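hiii, so i know i said id send this last week but things got crazy w the move. better late than never?? heres the sequnce for the chain we talked about at the cafe, plus the structure i predicted for it. fair warning i was half asleep when i ran it
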Amino acid sequence: QVQLVESGGGLVQTGGSLRLSCAASGRTFSSYAMGWFRQAPWQEREFVAAISWRGGSTYYADSVKGRFTISRDNAKNTGYLQMNSLKPEDTAVYYCAARNSFLPGPYYRPTDFGSWGQGTQVTVSS
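okay and structure toks below
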């Protein structure tokens, strides 16, 4: 229902920062929760962070807590993931996801989200 496009990935050094953006074309984006997942080669898709529809509640994987910050600007139909203190183990393709209906949080499962972007590569060099 919602069309999503990620951007902002790239190559950074350990300890660096990166800001990912998720642009939504669907007008329903601002109404429901969204999240970020990541997937390294040959591994499962992993929960990173999620945020409720108005931004009042946020959820983070233990591996990124304290380093990553999820946010959204509903007026711009855009979600963000600020990534600080990056580590090589953060290397993965990062996917933005959005729900198409209301569901109380938390949102830890890929199946909690109905719309997905194509992903943006994040590579952290050692």
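btw The two ends are 39 Å apart (CA to CA). thought thatd interest u
miss u guys!!
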